[in-house]
Write a structure and sequence with these properties.
The structure holds two protein chains of two kinds. Helices cover 36% and strands 24% of the residues of chain A. By secondary structure, chain A is an alpha+beta fold. Chain A has a single domain, classed as 2-Layer Sandwich (Heat Shock Protein 90). In chain A, strand 3 and strand 4 form a beta hairpin. Chain B is an alpha+beta fold. Chain B has a four-stranded mixed β-sheet with strand order 2-1-3-4, covered by helices on one side. In chain B, strand 3 and strand 4 form a beta hairpin. In chain B, helix 3 packs across helix 4. Chain B is globular and about 45 Å long. Classes of the chains: A alpha+beta, B alpha+beta. Chain B: GO terms for molecular function: iron-sulfur cluster binding; metal ion binding.
């Protein structure tokens, strides 16, 4: 995986396979404290304490149709490469949160990459999904919720290609604006 | 097209279109979205498909996703299902995805060269 946004998509896809209908993806970028963190939080069937210790093993999976589970081990490797950390928590009564933290300026940290593409892909393939996306860059915050957009669309399906292409452009602009408005002289973009 | 005003105009246009459109999905396109697929570029395939579906004005196509289908070496994989007929395209890239929309979904021609592993 070349981008953190691909890891986010992969983890979110696990959530959906675990029956999640609500997904909150949060990204925090704090240049002053040299921090980049993302969290994927779901309301799926959750994870047992025993499985949390096992999922870092690439040859462990709870799925019956395959023998390897590479998603979390690959994320752990991306985290280890730059001295970050990864936390996986069960959220009673159901749900899981995956939080990965990275030093923002580390040369070996993968770029955040095409986060818009990740969000659009999730929305495209999962019509019943309620997705919340929060992106905080220093003191600026952008929040997007599919529920709100569905209200604005007044009956037009969210998965209509024309709507999704509009949404892609809208999200791209809003996420670029976050960085533009902070007037950072230094710091890595993405 | 990025602002909320533009979304409102788009919504009004789509509402008019919907009155004359058969809203049933005749064709289902499924992109494999396992870890292997994502690493190979499946996310970009979904975006390219969406853009081309919009260009071609196709709203009768259900674009869906599935997990790893066990053919990791041929990812990104894309399956087109129309009625009882299914076609699996392998090693798809953005350009191939757009061409699949134009040839297979619009003209009804299966691109057989992209359904077999390259020799």
């Amino acid at each position: 995986m070349e981008e953190l946004s691909q890891h986010i998509l992969d983890i979110a896809f696990n959530s959906l396979e675990a029956g999640a209908t609500e997904l909150t993806i949060s990204v925090w970028e704090d240049i002053k404290h040299n921090l980049l963190q993302f969290e994927v939080l779901d309301n799926g069937r959750g994870i047992t304490a025993e499985d949390i210790t096992k999922i870092l093993d690439p040859f462990y999976t709870t799925k019956s149709f395959k023998r390897v589970g590479l998603g979390v081990p690959l994320l752990q490797e991306a985290v280890d490469r730059c001295g970050g950390n990864l936390k996986i928590k069960a959220l009673p009564p159901g749900g899981t949160s995956v939080t990965a933290t990275f030093p923002h300026d580390h040369l070996d940290r993968a770029p955040l990459g095409d986060i818009t593409g990740t969000l659009i892909t999730l929305i495209t393939g999962h019509r019943q999904l309620n997705l919340v996306y929060r992106h905080r860059y220093n003191r600026q915050t952008f929040i997007f919720e599919t529920r709100q957009l569905k209200t604005l669309l007044r009956g037009i399906p969210l998965h209509t290609p024309e709507v999704l292409v509009w949404l892609k452009n809208y999200l791209n602009l809003k996420i670029i604006d976050l960085r533009r408005e902070t007037n950072e002289e230094f710091g890595r973009a993405g | 097209m990025k602002s909320l005003d533009e979304l409102d105009k788009l919504r009004q246009k789509l509402q008019q279109d919907m009155q004359v459109r058969d809203n049933d999905h005749e064709v289902r396109v499924t992109v494999s979205m396992g870890t292997c697929g994502i690493a190979a570029g499946a996310r970009e395939i979904v975006q390219a498909m969406l853009e081309e579906l919009k260009e071609q004005g196709l709203n009768n196509v259900a674009l869906t996703q599935t997990s790893c289908v066990g053919l990791c070496q041929h990812e990104p994989l894309l399956e087109v299902a129309r009625g009882g007929e299914k076609t699996t395209y392998i090693n798809v890239d953005r350009e191939k995805a757009r061409e699949i929309v134009r040839k297979h979904l619009v003209q009804g021609q299966v691109i057989k060269d992209w359904t077999n592993p390259e020799k």
